[in-house]
From TrEMBL:
Domain ABC transporter per the UniProt entry, residue ranges: 1-230
Sorted UniProt keywords: ATP-binding, Nucleotide-binding, Transport
Keyword ATP-binding belongs to the record: yes
Record-given protein name: ABC transporter
Natural source organism: Anaerotignum lactatifermentans DSM 14214
Organism placement in taxonomy: Bacteria, Bacillati, Bacillota, Clostridia, Lachnospirales
InterPro entries in UniProt: AAA+_ATPase (IPR003593), ABC_SmlMolc_Importer (IPR050093), ABC_transporter-like_ATP-bd (IPR003439), P-loop_NTPase (IPR027417)
GO molecular-function terms, A-Z: ATP binding; ATP hydrolysis activity
């Protein structure tokens, strides 16, 4: 799968300007709070509409401002893991995951996901009584149930304590590896970006400060923002 995106979106005082070309790789986005990371993901997912530009997945156009094409979020096949997981509170774990299936009932796949994410025992429980890790596993299972072509992870570990963070990082790593398509991970934690991604983009006030091989950028950040975020203090 190849994701090509070039778009602009004005938000408050900044304009987010993004140009990406990704092919079966994991991109990490690093940037200060408010620089436009979540807006970027939301534009790709179809939750927000860019003012201008084009987003294409292989030969399928998801958004084209000139041709007035804008596929609905539900039709984009882009999986989105929200910071707070956004589980439906009135549905059990099983129902939350099943909700992501299309018309056809994929019972075997549902059971497989419950097992894979260690959710079989809590399948009939509601999100409010789940641990943070179980909530995140449910959200990941729901995301994969829709068989996405692209996976977007927005600060997937921010709601977890440090022990769970380590455990869930391994799970996310396995998900990304077995997925094998285009994935984007937004994180404030540079170590997570370093461990989980092959490509890294440093954003500064809505723009791409630099983008390239993660190991290369971490070894030699070329911009002041890159040096600050990677070599400097905390974000
Ligand atoms: N739906 C929206 N419509 C218009 N402006 C928005 C919308 N969502 C966020 N913004 C604004 O866009 C800017 C970038 O926000 P965004 O949430 O993308 O930052 P971020 O880099 O993800 O920050 P953080 O790391 O704190 O999550 C902010 O000024 C924010 O107030």
């Amino acid at each position: 799968m190849r994701l090509q995106a070039e778009f602009r979106k004005k938000v408050k005082t900044e304009t987010i300007e993004i140009s990406l070309d990704l092919e079966n790789e994991v991109l990490g986005i690093l940037g200060r709070s408010g620089c436009g990371k979540s807006v970027t993901l939301r534009c790709l997912a179809g939750i927000l509409q860019p003012d201008k530009g084009r987003i294409q997945l292989d030969d399928k156009i998801l958004f084209d401002s000139e041709k007035k094409i804008s596929e609905k979020a539900q039709k984009r096949k882009i999986g989105y893991l929200f910071q707070n997981y956004a589980l439906f509170p009135n549905m059990t774990v099983r129902e939350n995951i099943a909700f992501a299936f299309g018309k056809e009932k994929e019972k075997d796949f549902l059971e497989e996901l419950l097992e894979r994410f260690y959710l079989t025992e809590v399948a009939e429980l509601y999100p409010a009584v789940l641990s943070g890790g179980q909530q995140q596993r449910t959200a990941m299972a729901r995301m994969l149930a829709a068989k996405p072509d692209v996976i977007l992870l927005d600060e997937p570990f921010s709601a977890l304590d440090s022990f769970l963070r380590q455990e869930m990082e391994r799970e996310v790593q396995q998900v990304l590896q077995s997925f094998g398509g285009v994935s984007i991970l937004v994180s404030h934690n540079k170590e997570e970006i370093f461990r989980l991604t092959q490509k890294c983009m440093v954003m500064e006030r809505g723009k791409i400060a630099e983008i390239g091989d993660t190991k290369e950028i971490f070894a030699h950040p070329k911009t002041a923002e890159g040096r600050l975020l990677i070599q400097g203090g905390s974000l």
